[in-house]
Amino acid sequence: PYLFKNGEWAEKIINSDAELQGMFDKMATSAGVRVFGAWGQRSSRAIQSTRGPIMMPEDVKGLRLRIPAIPMLRAMFDRLGAQSTPLGMLEIYSALSRGTVDGQDNGFDLAIPPRFHEAAKFWSATDHVNELVGFFGSERLWKGLNEADRELFRKASREAGMVTTQLTKQLDTDAIEILKKAGCTYVVPDIAAFRKAVAGVEDDLEGKMWPKGFVARLRKLQEA
Predict the structure, then answer these.
(1) Is the residue at 148 inside a domain?
(2) 221 within 8 A of 13, measured Cβ to Cβ
């Protein structure tokens, strides 16, 4: 959580960092999937709740929260004391409506179109994760391309990413008005308090999901 300062930094680092590119190369070898771009800023992840606005980290304690099956997010919300439950997108509306969960973790781009705000009226812009659109394909296909054709794919991913970012920023602006018109409450919580509360939560996953020192190095790159 809070790894990148913003989406621009995420795009800059993910598409240029040598260690990350090495990790992508290993994935191409082991899984047969070639990542050739990560462009296009998605909506920042937030907490949408049925119980009330989330203003401070302690407000998350005891919250029955839907999350995707991502270990880092589970570690974050475990640290905050939430009762996190992995659910697929098609299950969220029903779970919120029936009270099976008290809230869900998502960005505007995945929460507004399915109208989750009809069931959960409180949106807290914690902005704890900046996500991008990944562009990938078969490694076997990639190996069969010459460098000029590969560059066409990379160029197309950058151009598609620019359009995605423009559309997302417009959606994010419109979403706040959509929430207000639907009688929802939109708040910006104490981001500094959230950053402090989850600081170091990635330590337990060091050496397992990424090399030791990797996260610290990416944070330091953004201090320049």
Answers:
(1) no
(2) yes
